[in-house]
Design a protein that fits this description.
single chain, 120 residues, 5-stranded antiparallel beta sheet, 5 strands, 29% strand
Length: 120
């Protein structure tokens, strides 16, 4: 999965989309200091809203906006992940075209990676 994001970052930087650009060491520091406060960043994601059970992360770009909701169901001990994308123009459509089929694989993989980092 890591090499897919490396390729993605190289390609999308050519069309003006944002990349995280973080090293592994920097990502670990950011995750350890992450409090979930509005405006705080964790990689490419900015916190837009949240409460004790849910956090809304995402990014706005000239080509597309995306949001990720992480909702914790404490009774069932489950984490529900929902995503939405708002496409603004043809470059956003072009970007999301190859991403969409992999989306159901990418999001869970990213979440597992974050959990692994947080529980080290």
């Amino acid at each position: 999965m890591g090499w897919l994001f490396t390729v993605r970052n190289k390609i999308v930087s050519l069309i003006g989309l944002k990349t995280s650009g973080s090293s592994e060491a920097k990502r670990e520091t950011v995750l350890k200091n992450f409090k979930g406060e509005i405006g705080q960043r964790v990689g490419l994601f900015k916190v837009f809203d949240g409460n004790e059970n849910e956090i809304i992360l995402g990014e706005d770009d000239k080509h597309l906006d995306f949001r990720v909701s992480l909702l914790l169901d404490k009774k069932e001990n489950l984490l529900h992940v929902s995503t939405t994308v708002k496409i603004h123009n043809w470059l956003g459509k072009l970007y999301f075209l190859p991403v969409k089929p992999f989306h159901k694989l990418i999001v869970p993989s990213m979440m597992k990676g974050m959990v692994n980092q947080l529980t080290k």
